[in-house]
Structures are given as C-alpha cells and as structure tokens.
Amino acid sequence: MSVGSFVVFLLQYSLLAQEYTPAEYFDYEVVDGKVVITDYNREPDQPFTVSIPPQIDGMDVVAIGDWAFEGFFNLTAVTLPEGVTSIGEGAFEECGSLAAVNFPASLTSIGVDAFADTGLTEVQITAGITSIGEKAFSGCANLASITVSADNP
Asked: Which tens digit of pLDDT belongs to each residue from 2-61?
C-alpha cells in the first residue's frame, strides 16, 4: 500500500469513526449564526490529521476561512464534514505534507490558492462545486489526477 493510499484509507476510517478534532483547537468567527473556521491554534511538530466537527458550540460549520491552515507542513489529511460550502483563499496553502482531503457534497467553492503547494496526490471534484479559484492546486508536485464528477455542471 502506497503512502497516499494509506492516508486516504485513514481519512475514510476517520469519516466512519466520526472522531473529530476537539473544537477548542480551532479559532472561528460566527457569521449569520454559522461557524467559519479561521485558524488552527496548535503548533504540532509531528504529522497530524484534522477532522473538522460538523458543529461548534451548537452552530453548523459552513466554511474554512482564508489562510486558516496555511503553512502547517505536518498536516497530512483533512476531513471536512457535510455542510461545509466553501474553502477560502489560501486555506491550506503550503501544507506540504497534505496528501488527502475529502470534499463533501455540500461544497460549492474552492478559493484562490486554497491548496497551492500541498502534497495532494489526487483530487475528486464533487457535483456541487461550481467555483474553483485561480491556482487552487498550483505547485502540487505530487498531484497525479483530478477527477470531476459526471454530475458536475
């Protein structure tokens, strides 16, 4: 099993197990009663994964804000919950070890440079994604494939 396949396996397992990263690890803003993640407030020096909870303090998580995880080189995988509709500008830029991320069916937009210079190996664009910012996946040297859902307009 390759490292990329193993990371995808771990990501899928995380989705099934519903083990979320503790809410206190995130800084966030409340916009119209919904949560926008603005920062990951830990500085791990070892490889780590993040599983965004679907709610924080009883409010739905709907977005990953601009630059929220930028520069976390040791971040290897991200699990986004159903309900997240947007990933902001540079949200995961320069996360060089980021090999896997799931895009929930609710996701509609991916910002400029959102995944630039990451370690992504493959990307699956879901049917609901209608906007992808310029250079969203630029500099991803390990990116071998981008698959777009047949149901995507």
From this structure: 555 554 454 444 444 558 999 999 999 999 999 999 999 998 999 999 999 999 999 999
Exposure letters 62-74 (e unless 16+ CB within 10 A, then b): bbbbbbbbbebbe
Run of H or E residues at 76: strand 75-79
Distance CA 84, CA 60 (A): 9
Q: Which residues contact 31 (CB under 8 A, 6 or more apart)?
A: 63
SS3 101: strand
Question: In the numeric block, which tokens belong to residue 47?
Answer: 């490889």
Q: Model pTM greater than 0.70? A: yes
Contact yes or no for 142/99 (Cβ under 8 A): yes
Q: How many CB atoms lie within 10 A of CB 21?
A: 18
Three-state secondary structure readout of 23-67: HHHEEEEEECCEEEEEEECCCCCCCEEEECCCEECCEEEEEECCC
Sole residue written with tokens 């310029």:
134
